[in-house]
Amino acid sequence: MPAAAPDNISKPLSRKERERSARRLEILRAARSVFAEKGFEKATLEEIAERAEFGKGTVYNYFESKDNLFLAAVTGLLDDVHAIAERVANTKCPVRDCFADYARQMIEYYHANHAFSRMVMRVWGRPGIKGSDDMLDDLHTRVDFAAEPLAEVLQAAIGRKEVRRADAKVMAVMFIGLVHHYYIHQSAHVPDNAVKDLDTDVEFIVSSFFDGIANR
């Protein structure tokens, strides 16, 4: 009699589950595109359904409202941020190189998703969006989640006495915020939203975080 499969090995998705997951992803991609172009207020489920090449009823099978779809699209963006942090942390590179790689990948990600990211910031927490309070709570939870891989890298560096002893999670969240706000500020002053000198941007962010801004 063959041995039973270990409990910790997940079963492969059925064809129906794969198809459902693929449809949901297509709807979310279309939603990001329409929200980025039209803004939250002017975007409609009809246009999102048309962009995804589905009927409006199909969209309702996955998302009960435009608000719910928007929250799901934002959640996907935050999940991407965590995935970048986790991927970088798993390279096991020196702490400074690891954080430089994170800054580089995040700037490239923001650049590639600029319109949607900017739109999210404009409407974030507005009372007109149902569930906005929950969305803000989810933001903090997911930022903390994204910070965990970077915090582990910092904690290891603290153990090697390469970084001053402090709360590694707090420092990781500070670095994520530094990358985020630096990109937003720079992109607002570049008309075509081009990354003019990525190496210079990354070096400035990393040196400001690890070395400070005072002349030495």
Describe this structure in words.
With 216 residues, the chain is an all-alpha fold. 73% of the residues lie in helices and 0% in strands. The protein contains 9 helices and no strands. Helix 1 crosses helix 2, helix 1 (15-42) crosses helix 4 (66-89) and helix 1 (15-42) packs across helix 6 (114-123). It is globular, with a radius of gyration of 20 Å. Mean pLDDT is 83; it is low at 1-8.
Mean pLDDT: 83
Oligomer: single chain
Roughly how many Å apart are the termini?
Answer: 72 Å
Query: Which spans of ≥5 residues are poorly predicted at pLDDT below 50?
Result: 1-8
Q: Given the helix and strand composition, which structural class is it?
A: mainly alpha
Query: What is the N-to-C succession of helices and strands?
Result: HHHHHHHHH
Rg over C-alpha atoms, rounded to the nearest angstrom: 20 Å
Share in β-strands: under 5%
Helix content: over 70%
Beta strand count: 0
Main traits of this protein?
disordered N terminus; 216 residues; mainly alpha
Structure summary:
The protein has 216 residues and is an all-alpha fold. It is built from nine helices and no strands. Helix 1 packs across helix 4, helix 4 packs parallel to helix 7 and helix 5 crosses helix 8.
